[in-house]
Amino acid sequence: MPIRQLRPEIVNRIAAGEVIERPASVVKELVENALDAGASEIEVVTSAGGISLIRVTDNGAGMTAADLALAVERHATSKLADDDLFNIATLGFRGEALPSIGAIAHLAIASRHRKAAAAHEIVVERGKKQDVRPAALNPGARVEVRELFSATPARLKFLKSERAENLGICEVVKRLAMANPAVAFTLTTGERAGLKLPAQLGGPGGHLARLGRIMGREFLADALPVDIERDSVRVTGFAGLPTLHRPDTGQQYLFVNGRPVKDRLLIGAVRAAYGDLVPKLRHPLLALFVTLPPREVDVNVHPTKSEVRFRDPGRVRSVVAGALRLALEAAGHRASVAGGLAVADVLAKRPNAAGVGRMGPNPAGLSPGFAEDWQAPLDGLTAPSADATAAAQPPAPELLDRPLGAARAQLHETYILAQTRHSVVIVDQHAAHERLVYERLKAALAGGDVARQTLLIPEVVDLDTDEVAALAVAAPELEKLGLALEAFGPGAVLVREVPALLGDTDVKGLVRDLAREALGEGDGSLLKERLEAVCSSIACHGSVRSGRRLTPEEMNALLRAMEATPRSGQCNHGRPTYVELKLADIERLFGRR
After folding, report:
1. Which of 492, 515, 520, 587 pairs as cysteine with 592 (C-beta 3.0–4.6 A)?
2. Last residue of a domain, which of 299, 330, 361?
3. Residue range(s) defining the domain that contains residue 436
4. Residues 472 and 554 occupy one common structural domain
């Protein structure tokens, strides 16, 4: 069959298939255009999950009549002034979105330039462009997309339910709103609950307020600020405490130069930073914004621009992981407030002796006199029947001002009950001490204080030549962790020493795993992770066990050690080591507030 050139309308439909996957893709492209135009207010209205209607209105810079005519042509853009694809500072730049949308739907664009006296409009009907005509509009732009995929009806079969498409649209708007807190967003999808996000003031406080509106009050209460810049890479945003986690990554938001992305390298950096602070198969909540020079990142590797490629991925991963670790260490022993609120909620819902839930006002029909008669037998309790002095000494006032307070009792030989001026703290003694021992062991590892075991007969491990070369580069770091190896010919390495912590380990299997990691884009953390896993097991067996009775001095010593140890708010398995009940919440349980 001879080669022929496709018709322009077919080319546009093919491009639309790459760029426009679902209605949410259209919303993403149009809202990004509004942001690039400098809009401070953006309104999105959809109907029937975006199939019948998508309307995006903004107060941005707007377009002239000449700009409108070019805007619907392929590869026409105002965002590449010097045609440099490696210096992209805008969200859109290819000039494909509008012509792609116009090829498969009814597209109407009305716009008025900020310096123009009148507005103009252009219509593209399934690939057929009409003439520019006068219109009525305030400065800015209004883009309407109707009957989406009407030119490619087969695509409709692959769409989800209207509700699912609405959720997809809402997620797109939320992500773009998170990266642009100074812009007001309004979304109306026909669902009962829309989305209205007022513009926020500049600075971290305004940004956190925007994130709280989207990620919830729970995140707002437990968010740790992140802000670090190193080697021209800056990481800002907020990360949730390790004790605030969920079973999926739906609340992990990652951005690169203001662009929402789903990047495996960044996800890996998050996983490495939190490490053993969260339980297995659980994921922390966070919103991180990575900013670096445009020439250091390629945003042109995916048609929807949802993936990026870094020029120096190792450097970016290191900065992101380091920023998160610093934030988590700065949090010290702090644990999520959700734990205390959950306890208070359980207590508030616990049925009373009559099988009734929360205590409310006196039942209807009971007079105050009846209540007084009922309480009469208890009159004698107004005065103590014996010496009511507490057996324990009153807590030292200075201890009440400490974050975890003063130890007051031990319950079930497992839980330490402590008191601060404004709360009650319940500590799991085994979980808390386990974390303290584990952190000491990890500090020894980090300081290079790793006991080594010299092999009686050095182990020869056969590898590929590229794996040998990769291990040779990583050898100095592995040496610090107790693994001494060297090249042994072109296709093998010789192992002379292994970390004593590993005991009777499979040396060949370990070295092969390390070689695969070194050959990929790993950061050489595999051996360290294995050693830390052993340390975790040692800490679990060597810590204070449940059922051991502690003296007041021992309990207070444990509380002080927790306050001085970063990450002590959760045990080695990611569970909280303590919960705090605020006095105000306790008073509400008893109707005092």
Report:
1. 587
2. 330
3. 397-593
4. yes
The contacts of residue 361 (CB under 8 Å, 6+ apart) are: none
Question: What CATH number is associated with residue 515?
Answer: 3.30.1540.20
Residue 158 has pLDDT above 90, yes or no: no
d(CA 274, CA 541): 23
- Check whether residue 75 and residue 173 sit in a common domain: yes
Which range in 51-55, 115-119, 495-499 is most confidently predicted, on average pLDDT?
A: 51-55
DSSP-assigned letters across all residues of 121-182: EEEEETTEEPPPEEE---SEEEEEEESTTTTSGGGGGG---HHHHHHHHHHHHHHHHHH-TT
Contacts of 270 (CB under 8 A, 6+ apart): 252, 254, 284, 286, 288, 320, 321, 324
Helix 507-519, helix 526-542: angle, nearest 10: 130
Helix residue ranges, H only, 48-127: 65-71, 97-104
- With a CB cutoff of 8 Å and minimum separation 6, the contacts of 458 are 494, 495, 496
**What is the pLDDT at residue 375?**
39
More confident residue, 364 or 492: 492
> Is residue 562 predicted with pLDDT exceeding 50?
yes
Tokens of 583: 């006095």
Q: Using the predicted structure, report yes or no on whether residue 533 has a pLDDT greater than 80.
A: no
Give this prediction's pTM: 0.74
| 452 phi/psi in degrees, rounded to 5 | -120, 155
118: left (phi over 0), alpha (psi -120 to 50) or beta: beta
582 and 519 in one domain? yes
The more confidently predicted of residues 561 and 377 is 561
Residue 96 has a CB neighbour count (10 Å cut-off) of 21
Q: DSSP letters of 355-395?
A: S-SS--SPPTT--HHHHHHHHGGGGGGGS-SS----SSPPP
Instruction: Say if residue 39 is in the same domain as residue 180.
Output: yes
Quick: pLDDT tens for 118-128.
Answer: 999 999 998 89
- Domain assignment present for 2: no
Where does 167-305 show beta strands of DSSP type E? Answer: 184-188, 195-197, 223-230, 233-240, 245-246, 252-256, 259-261, 283-284, 286-291, 297-298
Among 196, 214, 236, the domain boundary falls at 196
Within a domain: 520: yes
